[in-house]
Amino acid sequence: MGVDYYNILKVNRNASDDDLKKAYKRLAMIWHPDKNPTSKRSEAEAKFKQISEAYDVLSDSQKRQIYDLYGEEALKSDQFPPRGGGGGGGGPPVASRQNQSSHHQFSGNGASFRFNQRDAEDIYAEFFGSESSGGGGRGRRGHGDGVFRTSNGGASASNGGGGGGELRKEAPVENTLPCSLEELYKGAKKKMKISRTISDGIGKSRTVEEILTIEIRPGWKKGTKITFPEKGNQEPGVIPADLIFVVDEKPHAVYKRDGNDLVVNQEITLLEALTGKNLELTTLDGRNLVIPLTDIIKPGFEMVVPGEGMPISKEHGRKGNLRIKFDVKYPSRLTAEQKSDLRRVLGGIL
């Protein structure tokens, strides 16, 4: 079955020249290979070639007549059924094979027509690269002029003309990515399910679901952004928005983050403050950390344990510090005997 050029351009069979031009311009702006990321280049090249071929045939009155009567296969193979006794009576032209090259000889009503498929870039240049700065000079530009090609592979108008070829990009879409302190300490993989609308470039849109994998690296901080280029909704004539996930830090029951350090508020009794103890903490990666308290602890004292803080993401193997802030709990009351004992024990050292 032959190709439906009308369907490719999304026009009806009575489409005028203006209809064809509008349809081609809209689709070419979407599917030109230079306007698509590397990951979609093969798909874009195929669609761009198909769109250009459809416009080439339908915008040429003789090619369109042959296509309408006999279809795409006959058009390309130059096999047209004879009609009206060898081309008389205003019937469709009759073709005869002249050679096996890409050019096909077509003759009818005494006229000769040579069918030659035009280069896709030549057609594109007629629409977006034909204006010159002084009103004179070249009326069109060929593929060799590098129209709309830039050093970074993007698309831009040349010689101040063709500004209509620029595509607008949608504003980035940001989403919060809540992470536990354990995930930011050890690293983790999160899978996010997204739903977005995509267009096939020829007028049809559909909703697709996709799973995005986000690799949380040890030491990432609140506000870190992970960008998935052009994963927003896709609309004709517009470059899809980037999808951005912004790291947010969930509160933790024990630890609080301060830059690369971890902070713990630890309450101890007056007896422990005076006589010492072994403080036990469970680290964010599940280790049991034993910290001996041998000195007298005063209210508000802060102890620093080097290397037990958060990983430093840009300095592999390094960590911040663990800072323990102590609060000393005093007894609410003492008996007369207890007060006497304290005076006896502490009276000589205070």
Mean pLDDT: 77
What share of residues is helical? 25-40%
Number of H/I helices:
10
Reported for the largest beta sheet, the result is: 4 strands, mixed
Low-pLDDT residue spans: 83-113, 130-165
Strand content: 25-35%
What is the spatial order of strands in the main beta sheet?
11-12-16-15
**From the structure provided, what is the oligomeric state, counting identical versus distinct chains?**
single chain
**Terminus-to-terminus distance:** 103 Å
Number of strands: 16
For the CA atoms, what is the radius of gyration?
37 Å
Described by the principal axes of the CA atoms, the overall outline is rod-shaped
Helix-strand pattern: HHHHHHEEEHEEHEEEEEEEHEEEEH
Content-based structural category: alpha+beta
Task: Please characterize this protein's 3D structure.
The protein is α+β, with helices and mostly antiparallel strands and 350 residues long. 26% of the residues lie in helices and 27% in strands. The strands form 6 sheets. A 4-stranded mixed beta sheet has the order 11-12-16-15. Strands 1-2-3 form a 3-stranded antiparallel beta sheet, with no helix packed on it. Strands 5-10-8 form a 3-stranded mixed beta sheet. A hairpin with a 2-residue loop joins strand 2 and strand 3. Helix 2 runs antiparallel to helix 3 (41-58). The radius of gyration is 37 Å and the shape is rod-shaped.
Concise account of the structure shown:
The protein contains ten helices and 16 strands. 26% of the residues lie in helices and 27% in strands. Mean pLDDT is 77; it is low at 83-113 and 130-165.
